[in-house]
């Protein structure tokens, strides 16, 4: 009797099973997605047990080119926007732009859990214990986007508008041309990283960012 070939997600889940054995998955044919459910044990740097979350992760059929949706089911985290979680437990595990860039390259479900999901929940337990997060926290709504442009892309609001306009208008951006930020430095030695990252987020997101910067919200 022949067996149906495993999907890429199912093949990749073998690594999840090895690293996070309390998680399992099933395919939802109605919504064309995989759903990962189970317990996620959190431990400290020395292996000491911190706590356990009941979680669910919805993975679209477009895997690996997708952004999984993460939900905390156990209700340990206060349902408050200041805790980066919605009233129904949907977790804001990272800023949208980084998640989009990640999805364009293609994700590994095991790495996604290890590098995005696990640190999110570990940081929540840390905050519950010591009243603040261990690392940098992004602000909410568009303030967080501006913070991302300012701190990670090193672009002021004016420079961000120049860069966004150029990308939306599909201008040819030469590596040896003066950087769009106005520094006078060659692009390759200035904001090339920012340009390359922003190219991956899609025209729709670029338009949204530009409109918000111009509106000043």
In terms of topology, how is this protein built?
Layout: H1 8-19, E1 23-28, E2 33-43, E3 49-60, E4 69-72, H2 96-105, H3 109-130, H4 141-152, H5 157-168, H6 192-199, H7 203-215
Antiparallel strand pairs: 1-2, 2-3, 3-4
Helix pairs in contact: 1-3, 5-7
Question: Would you mind describing this structure in some detail?
Answer:
- With 217 residues, this protein is α+β, with helices and mostly antiparallel strands.
- It has 2 domains: 8-130, Ubiquitin Conjugating Enzyme; 141-215, no CATH class.
- The protein is built from 7 helices and 4 strands.
- A 4-stranded antiparallel beta sheet has the order 1-2-3-4.
- It comes from Chitinophaga horti.
- This is SEC-C metal-binding domain-containing protein.
- InterPro entries: SEC_C_motif, UBQ-conjugating_enzyme/RWD.
Structural domain tally: 2
| SSE string | HEEEEHHHHHH
Give me the number of helical elements. 7
Q: Which fold does the CATH topology of the largest domain refer to?
A: Ubiquitin Conjugating Enzyme
Global Rg: 20 Å
Task: Tell me the major beta sheet.
Answer: 4 strands, antiparallel
Structural class: alpha+beta
Low-confidence stretches: none
Shape descriptor: globular
Terminal CA distance? 61 Å
Extended strand count = 4
**Which second-level CATH architecture of the largest domain applies?**
Roll
Sheet with most strands: strand arrangement: 1-2-3-4
Portion in helices: 40-55%
The CATH class designation of the largest domain is Alpha Beta
Overall residue-averaged pLDDT value: 91
Mind telling me the CATH superfamily name of the largest domain?
Ubiquitin Conjugating Enzyme
Organism: Chitinophaga horti
Protein name: SEC-C metal-binding domain-containing protein
InterPro entries: SEC_C_motif, UBQ-conjugating_enzyme/RWD
């Amino acid at each position: 009797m022949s067996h149906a070939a495993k999907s890429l997600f199912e093949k990749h889940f073998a690594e999840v099973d090895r690293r996070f054995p309390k998680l399992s998955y099933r395919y939802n044919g109605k919504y064309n997605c995989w759903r990962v459910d189970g317990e996620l044990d959190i431990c400290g740097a020395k292996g000491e047990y911190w706590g356990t979350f009941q979680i669910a992760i919805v993975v679209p059929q477009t895997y690996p080119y997708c952004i999984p949706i993460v939900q905390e089911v156990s209700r340990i985290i206060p349902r408050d926007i200041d805790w980066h979680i919605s009233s129904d437990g949907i977790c804001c595990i990272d800023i949208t732009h980084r998640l989009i860039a990640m999805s364009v390259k293609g994700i590994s479900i095991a790495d996604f859990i290890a590098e995005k999901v696990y640190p999110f929940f570990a940081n929540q337990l840390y905050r519950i214990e010591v009243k603040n997060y261990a690392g940098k926290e992004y602000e909410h709504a568009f303030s967080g986007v501006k913070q991302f442009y300012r701190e990670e892309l090193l672009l002021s609001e004016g420079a961000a508008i120049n860069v966004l306009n150029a990308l939306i208008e599909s201008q040819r951006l030469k590596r040896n041309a003066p950087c769009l930020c106005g520094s006078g430095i060659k692009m390759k030695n200035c904001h090339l990283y920012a340009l390359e990252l922003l190219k991956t987020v899609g025209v729709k997101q670029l338009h949204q960012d530009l409109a918000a910067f111009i509106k000043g919200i």
